[in-house]
Amino acid sequence: MAVFKPENVEEFYEIGEVLGSGHFAQVRKVHERATGTYWAGKFLKIRKNACSRLGLDRSRLEEEVDILHAIQHPNIITLKDVFESRAEVVLVLELVTGGELFDFIAEKENLLESEAIEFMEQILKGLGFMHSKNIVHFDLKPENIMLSDRVAPHPNIKLIDFGLAHRFHQGEEYRSSSGTPQYIAPEVIASDPLSTAADMWSIGVITFILLSGLSPFQGDTDDETLRNIIVMNYEFAAQYFSMTSSMAKDFIQKLLVKDPSERMTAEECLLHPWIKPITRTQVAKRNRSSINMKSFKKFNARRKWKMSYNMVWMCNRLVRLNLLCKGRSEADPLERQCESDVEDGESKPASLLRRRLSSSS
Ligand code: ATP
């Protein structure tokens, strides 16, 4: 069982600049007073009471912390410490300074498939390790794949954000409707029992985007995206995949499989000839093929724009929410207890609760 230290985090760490924000957390650079080392502090609000709609359940945070303790691997973010106060929990994490993998790639002029594969291999190794411990991430997407240091000759992948992750117990049936529409597996949408295969679907989607700059199931609305996933409406459009090897397409096809039990596992992916070529011809094919950089750059620019739009939308909502709550003075006692958490009528709870369908596609 993870230990949540009751001391004030600021006694041990000086709090610095904001590194990033998500739906549930603000992440800041922190400076350990005793050693001078820099870390990332992930500040998460705890749900105050049962009627609160903002913040996370403590039990959910306990699961995130337990999972992080269980998966120490070079390609997975490391958890150092956990602090808890009345209103928030602070996870002290290894500091990742290389930014998101997709941003790193988008800055390049071109990238061979063989170079992209170096990153895919690391992602799969981290994932394979998690899956061997019956832990599933359930929120794999470009924002959660970072690089520890972008100036290194072979930058190291770090998987982050285990806020939706789940550890399966023997014989357990687990269902969840959380995730980000573009990347979620059909069994999530169908509310079927889930497994490690759900992450492998997301790997299929991420690889598809990485190679073509096209998101395979993206519709104009989240509903349309989800419908495209259910009916498996995707294709390797020639104009986007003209530079892609047949091995890469085969790799994707073996992941974007509707039946989770038929999907490649992370271990199997690592042995697929696209990742681990055996013949000289296979090696040559990978070195001749490259990612569709023009289209990829466009995809990444749109993705970044949507992320900042979502963030501004969320900030505006929080400001309005605050004003709304301050305006209420005579609420009944229970309502007052909850008032700082109440959302207004036109709210989109999906953006504020840890249920992410339709929140950030
Ligand atoms: P989401 O909305 O995707 O659920 P979240 O609220 O769970 O996000 P994270 O995804 O863990 O929060 O972190 C938010 C952002 O903070 C990340 O996208 C990243 O930019 C930054 N970040 C997170 N962890 C680290 C880290 N260890 N080092 C540096 N930056 C980090």
From TrEMBL:
GO terms for cellular component: cytoplasm; nucleus. Residues 333-361 are annotated as: Disordered. SMART domains: S_TKc. It comes from the Eukaryota. GO terms for molecular function: ATP binding; protein serine/threonine kinase activity. SUPFAM superfamilies: Protein kinase-like (PK-like) (SSF56112). Belongs to the protein kinase superfamily. This is Death-associated protein kinase 2. It comes from Dissostichus eleginoides. The lineage of its organism: Eukaryota, Metazoa, Chordata, Craniata, Vertebrata.
